[in-house]
Amino acid sequence: MTVDLEEWFHAFYEADSGAWDNLESRINRNTDYILDVFTKHDVGATFFIVGWIARKYPELVKRIAGAGFDIGSHSDMHKVAFGMSKQGFMEDVKRSVSTLEEIICCKVKSYRAPFFSITESVIQYLETLHQLQIEVDSSICPCKTVYSGYPNFPEYGPCFLEIDGWQIKEIPVSTTRFLGQRFIYSGGGYFRLLPGWLIKRCFQSKNYNHSYFHPRDFDVVQPDYHASLVDNIKRKIGVSGARQKFEMLASLLQFTDIQSANKLIDWSEAPVVKISPK
Ligand SMILES: [Zn+2]
Known about the structure:
alpha/beta; TIM Barrel; four-stranded parallel sheet; about 35% helix; globular
């Protein structure tokens, strides 16, 4: 189980960070809801946190870590990886990781790019994580999404990525197939859209489920904002019924965080995906 800890306005694809300080903050109350559900159902989870959020709300980060949840990085300024140079990506990850480590006094060992934006064209950017001793990447979505995705990536579940002689562990978000097409059932807007019975069936039929949520997924009164129509539909669709499905899911299976999953996975049996950067 994972949560991408970000504000409602981080749903917008084109980051206008200059406006963020002037927008209503809803992250504390929305995160409280998630923490309550996780505590009630004894859910272990990793919170991938945006560096900008951590600097603004260090007490929230401390509260999450203090409650025993695992902390990973969700970039510093929530920009898509494929929109940056490799150097820019490295600087963004470094700043995020140092911000988080200063607050939690503990090594950050996992990372997820905004919008699952480690695509085929920038897969070699993960070298930065290898250099920073981040053990697990969780940035790959093995299907097409609205803005991103890596539809050619094998649906192995946890695997090693091997690129240019170095390796990193990948714990990707899980997908399923319908009429031959891959789709996400396990989190975000896809989870909000699908009916509860179908979500339940997908989760129960698989031996690998990797969920991801955002605090805004459960916020029915998000402010209006002049974003693109696609972004506004994406952030609001299915929100009204999301809490009920989320609580059903939390009680359905035993969830754990990325670090615990890393220990539970038999990595000696994990496939190695060898990639030749283009
Ligand atoms: Zn995000």
